[in-house]
C-alpha cells in the first residue's frame, strides 16, 4: 500500500464520528425550530416582528421534517438512542411546532380583523344591486379617520367619517357605533364613553360629539389664533421655514375661508379687538351674545360703552353717599386742630366721621398730655410706659381713647387712617403692640363710643356725626361631590370628595383606605403646600378607580394616603336661604350645604377628566355651578355677616425625594466608561452558539476558537515527552511525589477528562506537576501548558 493510500484510509470517518455528526445536526435542527418559535412569540407582542416571522415560518416544515426523519434514523441505528435528553428535546421541538402554527394563525386573524375594520363593507341584501356590490368589492382598503379631540382636526374627521360611515344607509347603527368608538381617542373618546355600544345609542353619541366640536365661531377663532401666534421667519429662507409658513398661515387662512362667514373682515376686526380685553369682560360679552353666531365689531364696541357707563355710575354713586347717623350727635375733640382725613369704606367694620364746615385754624400738631403717663406731651408711640406694659394693660390704657388704634395717632380714628401698615401678626387694622391671640379680648374696635355729655358750645370743638356700620364679608364654599370607589372585592362604595385643581396629586384618607381594604405601596416623593411648606404626613400611595354614582365612566389614578385631608366641609352648615335655589339642578353633592367629612381629594391629575366646561350663575355674588361628570359642583363665594374662623387652602405640589435626586445627579455627572469590544469576542460567541452541544453524560462540548486554519502541531509530542521525562527524574528522587501524581492522573481519567491513546495525536499538550509543601502535608497541582512552544508556535498562539 502506498503512503497516499494509507493516509486516505486513516482519514475516513469512523462510525462514532458519523454518529456524533448526526447528533450535532439533530441539535441544530432543534435550535432552528426553537428560533422560529421565539420569533413567533415576539410577533404576537410587536408588530414590527411580524414580517420576519412570516419569512421564517416558510422554513418551518423543512426543519421539522428533517428533524423528525433524523430522529427516527438515529433511533434505529443506535441502540442507546434516544436517551432522556433526546426524548426531552423531541418533546420540546414538537411543542414548538404546534405553538408556531398557533401564533401564525393569531397573526393572520389579527390582520384580517384590522382589514375588516378599515374596509368599507357593503352588505347588499337579496334585492340590492349586485353589480354595485361587485364594483365595491374591488375598491382598495380605506383607512377610517382618527380623531383625538383636537378642535382643528374635527372638520376633516367629520367630513371623512360622514362620507364613509355616517351617511351609508346600508351599515347598521350598531356597526356605526363600533366604527365611531374605534376612531376616537383622548377627550373625544371620553364624551361617548357613557354610551354603551348599542344600536339606539349611535345617534345620541354622534349628537353629543357634534355639540362639543361643531362650533364654527370657536373654529374661526382657533384658525385666526394660529395665524396670529405664528412667529415671523428669521434669517435666510429655507425649505423648512417656508413649509412652516404654508402649514401655519396658508392652511389656516384657507380653513377660515371655508367656514363661509358672512363678513370675514368685520369678524377679523372683532377678533383682534376682543383678544385685548380682560377675561372677565370677555366672559360677560360672550354671555350677553350667546345666541349670536358671529358677533360684529360694532356689537363689541356697544357693549364696552354700556359697561363703561355702568361702571362710572356705580363709582360716582358710591363716592357721593354720606352715611346717615344711626347714633345721637356728639362732639369730637380735635386736640391738634388738624384737618381730619376722609377715607373710603374698607372691607371691615368702620366708624365714619363727617367733618363740619368749620376749617381748622392750625396745621402744626400740638400733642396733648399722653393718655398713658398723663404728664408728658409726646406721641403715644414714644411713651416708654406704654411699651413696657403688657398687652392687656395697653388695652386698659386706651379704653375710651379717641385716637387711632392702628398707627397710635391722636388726630384721627382708625377708619380714617392712611397708613398702609397693619398688624404684623394677623394683618388686621390695629397696631402690632395691641395684638392678642385668639380667645383673648379683641383689639380692633369696630366703632368709637358716643359721648352724649359733651358740650357743643366751645369754639375749640368741631361738631361730628358718628355712624357705625358693618360691611358684608365674603365666605367661600369649596366644591364637593359624591362618587363611588372600587374596594378590594370589586364592589363600589360611596365616598365624598373635594375638588382641588391646585393639587398635583389626589389624596385618600387612611380611614377610607381601611374601609376599602386596598393594598398600599410606598411613596417616596416629598409634598409641599403653599409657601413651599413641607408635608410629611403621607403614608404611601394606592391605586384607585373612581366613577360617578351609578355611572360607568371609571377614572383611575394613584392617590396619596394621608391621615386626614381637611376638616369637615363646609366648615359650618350653610343657611337654608343660600342653598334652596340650587335643588332644581342636578347636584354632584345633594347635601353640599351640610358640614360633613371628606374622604378623597381629587387633584389636577383627574380634574381635566371630570370638568365638562359649563358654568351656571344663579345670582350675582353667589356660588357658581360647575358642570362635571358627577353633576353640578357648587363652588365659589357667598355673602355672610360672619367671618370664617379659618381659611382652607389645599394647594399641594410634589417634588422628587432629595435622596433620589442626589442619586440621579451623581449618575448624570459620572462619566460613562467607553467599552471597546474586540471583534474576536463576537467571533468566539458566534462559534460557541453554533458548535456547542451537550453529551448524554451531561457534559458540554465546544470547538476551540482558532484564528484561522487549524495548525499542524504534530511535533508537540516531543516537547510533551521532554516535560514528562523531567517529571520522572523528580519522581526518582521523591517516590511520594510520584504517588501523588499518579493518584491525580488516575482521578482525571476516572472523571472522563482524559483517556489513554495508542496512536499519534494531532497535538499533545505538555504538562508538569507543581508541588507545594505546607507543614507536614504536600499539595499537588498539575498545569497543562498550552503556551509551551513547538517548532511552529504554541497552541495558545493560534487561539483567539
In words, what does this structure look like?
This protein is α+β, with helices and mostly antiparallel strands and 800 residues long. It has six domains: 18-116; 130-214, no CATH class; 261-315, no CATH class; 340-452 and 459-471, no CATH class; 475-655, Beta Barrel (Cathepsin D, subunit A, domain 1); 716-798, no CATH class. The strands form six sheets. A six-stranded mixed β-barrel has the order 5-6-12-7-11-10. It is elongated. The relative contact order is 0.05.
CATH fold-level name of the largest domain: Cathepsin D, subunit A, domain 1
Structural class: alpha+beta
Tell me the distance between the termini.
40 Å
Counting DSSP H or I runs of 4 or more residues, the number of helices is 25
Question: How is the main sheet built?
Answer: 6 strands, mixed, barrel
Strand order of the largest sheet: 5-6-12-7-11-10
CATH class group of the largest domain:
Mainly Beta
What topology does this entry show?
Elements: H1 3-11, H2 15-45, H3 50-57, H4 60-77, H5 84-118, H6 130-136, H7 154-166, H8 173-183, H9 187-192, H10 202-213, H11 216-228, H12 239-258, H13 264-274, H14 279-288, H15 297-320, E1 330-332, E2 350-355, H16 384-388, H17 391-397, E3 462-469, E4 473-477, E5 480-486, E6 492-499, E7 506-509, H18 510-516, E8 526-528, E9 534-535, E10 540-548, E11 555-562, H19 576-579, E12 600-602, H20 604-610, E13 611-616, E14 624-628, E15 631-640, E16 653-655, H21 658-669, H22 679-691, E17 693-694, E18 700-701, H23 716-733, H24 735-750, E19 767-774, E20 777-784, H25 795-798
Parallel strand pairs: 6-12, 7-11
Antiparallel strand pairs: 1-3, 2-3, 4-15, 5-6, 5-10, 7-12, 8-9, 8-16, 10-11, 13-14, 14-15, 17-18, 19-20
Amino acid at each position: 500500500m502506498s503512503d497516499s493510500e494509507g493516509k486516505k484510509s486513516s482519514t475516513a470517518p469512523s462510525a462514532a464520528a458519523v454518529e456524533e455528526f448526526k447528533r450535532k445536526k439533530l441539535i441544530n435542527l432543534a435550535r432552528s425550530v426553537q428560533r422560529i418559535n421565539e420569533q413567533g412569540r415576539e410577533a404576537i407582542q410587536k408588530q414590527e416582528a411580524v414580517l420576519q416571522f412570516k419569512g421564517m415560518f416558510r422554513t418551518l416544515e423543512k426543519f421539522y421534517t428533517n428533524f423528525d426523519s433524523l430522529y427516527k434514523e438515529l433511533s434505529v441505528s443506535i441502540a442507546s438512542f434516544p436517551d432522556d435528553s433526546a426524548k426531552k428535546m423531541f418533546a420540546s421541538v414538537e411543542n414548538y411546532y404546534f405553538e408556531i402554527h398557533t401564533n401564525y394563525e393569531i397573526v393572520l386573524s389579527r390582520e384580517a380583523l384590522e382589514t375588516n375594520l378599515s374596509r368599507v363593507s357593503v352588505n347588499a341584501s337579496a334585492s340590492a344591486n349586485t353589480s354595485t356590490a361587485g364594483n365595491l368589492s374591488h375598491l382598495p382598503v380605506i383607512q377610517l379617520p382618527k380623531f383625538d379631540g383636537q378642535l382643528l382636526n374635527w372638520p376633516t374627521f367629520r367630513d371623512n367619517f360622514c362620507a364613509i360611515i355616517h351617511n351609508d344607509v346600508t351599515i347598521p347603527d350598531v356597526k356605526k357605533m363600533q366604527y365611531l368608538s374605534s376612531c376616537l381617542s383622548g377627550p373625544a373618546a371620553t364624551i361617548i364613553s357613557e354610551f354603551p355600544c348599542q344600536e339606539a345609542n349611535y345617534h345620541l353619541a354622534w349628537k353629543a360629539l357634534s355639540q362639543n366640536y361643531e362650533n364654527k365661531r370657536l373654529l374661526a377663532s382657533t384658525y385666526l389664533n394660529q395665524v396670529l401666534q405664528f412667529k415671523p421667519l428669521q434669517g435666510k429662507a429655507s425649505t423648512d421655514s417656508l413649509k412652516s409658513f404654508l402649514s401655519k398661515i396658508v392652511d389656516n387662512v384657507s380653513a377660515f375661508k371655508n367656514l363661509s362667514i358672512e363678513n370675514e373682515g368685520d369678524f377679523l376686526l372683532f377678533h383682534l379687538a376682543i383678544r385685548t380685553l380682560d377675561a372677565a369682560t370677555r366672559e360677560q360679552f360672550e354671555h350677553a351674545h350667546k345666541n349670536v353666531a358671529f358677533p360684529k365689531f360694532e356689537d363689541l364696541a356697544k357693549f364696552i360703552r354700556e359697561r363703561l357707563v355702568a361702571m362710572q355710575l356705580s363709582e360716582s354713586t358710591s363716592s357721593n353717599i354720606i352715611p346717615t347717623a344711626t347714633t345721637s350727635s356728639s362732639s369730637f375733640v380735635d386736640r391738634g386742630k388738624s384737618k381730619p382725613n376722609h377715607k373710603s369704606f374698607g372691607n371691615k367694620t368702620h366708624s365714619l366721621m363727617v367733618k363740619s364746615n368749620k376749617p381748622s385754624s392750625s396745621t402744626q400738631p400740638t400733642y396733648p398730655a399722653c393718655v398713658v403717663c398723663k404728664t408728658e406731651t409726646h406721641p403715644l408711640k414714644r411713651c416708654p410706659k406704654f411699651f413696657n406694659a403688657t398687652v392687656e394693660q395697653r388695652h386698659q390704657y386706651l379704653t375710651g381713647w379717641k385716637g387711632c388704634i392702628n398707627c397710635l395717632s391722636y388726630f384721627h380714628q382708625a377708619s380714617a387712617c392712611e397708613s398702609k401698615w397693619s398688624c404684623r401678626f394677623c394683618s388686621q387694622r390695629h397696631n402690632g403692640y395691641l395684638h392678642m391671640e385668639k380667645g383673648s379680648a379683641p383689639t380692633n374696635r369696630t366703632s368709637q363710643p358716643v359721648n352724649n355729655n359733651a358740650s357743643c358750645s366751645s369754639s375749640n370743638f368741631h361738631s361730628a356725626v358718628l355712624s357705625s356700620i358693618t360691611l358684608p364679608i365674603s365666605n367661600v364654599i369649596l366644591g364637593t361631590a359624591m362618587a363611588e370607589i372600587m374596594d378590594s372585592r370589586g364592589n363600589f362604595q360611596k365616598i365624598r370628595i373635594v375638588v382641588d385643581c391646585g393639587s398635583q396629586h389626589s389624596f385618600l384618607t387612611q380611614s377610607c383606605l381601611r374601609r376599602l381594604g386596598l393594598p398600599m405601596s410606598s411613596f417616596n416623593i416629598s409634598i409641599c403646600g403653599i409657601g413651599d411648606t413641607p408635608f410629611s404626613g403621607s403614608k404611601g400611595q394606592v391605586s384607585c378607580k373612581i366613577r360617578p354614582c351609578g355611572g360607568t365612566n371609571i377614572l383611575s389614578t394613584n392617590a396619596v394616603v394621608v391621615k386626614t385631608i381637611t376638616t369637615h366641609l363646609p366648615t359650618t352648615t350653610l343657611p337654608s336661604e343660600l342653598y334652596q335655589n340650587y335643588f332644581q339642578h342636578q347636584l354632584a353633592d345633594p347635601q353640599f350645604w351640610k358640614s360633613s367629612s371628606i374622604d378623597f381629594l381629587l387633584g389636577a391629575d383627574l380634574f381635566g377628566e371630570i370638568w365638562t366646561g359649563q358654568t351656571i350663575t344663579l345670582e350675582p355674588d353667589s356660588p357658581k355651578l360647575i358642570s362635571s361628570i358627577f353633576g353640578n359642583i357648587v363652588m365659589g363665594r357667598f355673602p355672610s355677616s360672619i367671618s370664617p374662623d379659618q381659611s382652607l387652602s389645599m394647594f399641594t405640589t410634589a417634588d422628587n425625594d432629595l435622596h433620589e435626586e442626589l442619586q440621579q445627579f451623581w449618575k448624570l455627572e459620572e462619566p460613562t466608561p467607553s467599552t471597546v469590544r474586540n471583534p474576536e469576542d463576537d467571533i468566539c460567541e458566534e462559534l460557541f452558539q453554533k458548535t456547542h452541544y451537550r453529551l448524554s453524560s451531561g457534559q458540554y462540548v465546544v470547538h476551540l476558537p482558532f484564528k484561522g486554519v487549524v495548525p499542524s502541531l504534530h511535533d508537540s509530542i516531543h516537547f510533551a515527552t521532554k516535560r514528562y521525562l523531567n517529571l520522572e527524574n523528580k519522581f526518582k528522587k521523591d517516590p511520594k511525589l510520584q504517588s501523588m501524581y499518579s493518584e491525580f492522573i488516575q482521578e482525571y481519567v476516572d472523571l472522563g477528562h482524559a483517556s489513554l491513546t495508542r496512536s499519534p495525536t494531532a497535538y499533545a499538550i505538555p504538562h508538569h506537576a507543581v508541588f507545594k509543601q505546607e507543614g507536614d502535608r504536600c499539595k499537588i497541582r498539575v498545569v497543562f501548558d498550552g503556551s509551551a512552544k513547538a517548532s511552529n508556535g504554541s497552541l495558545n498562539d493560534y487561539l483567539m
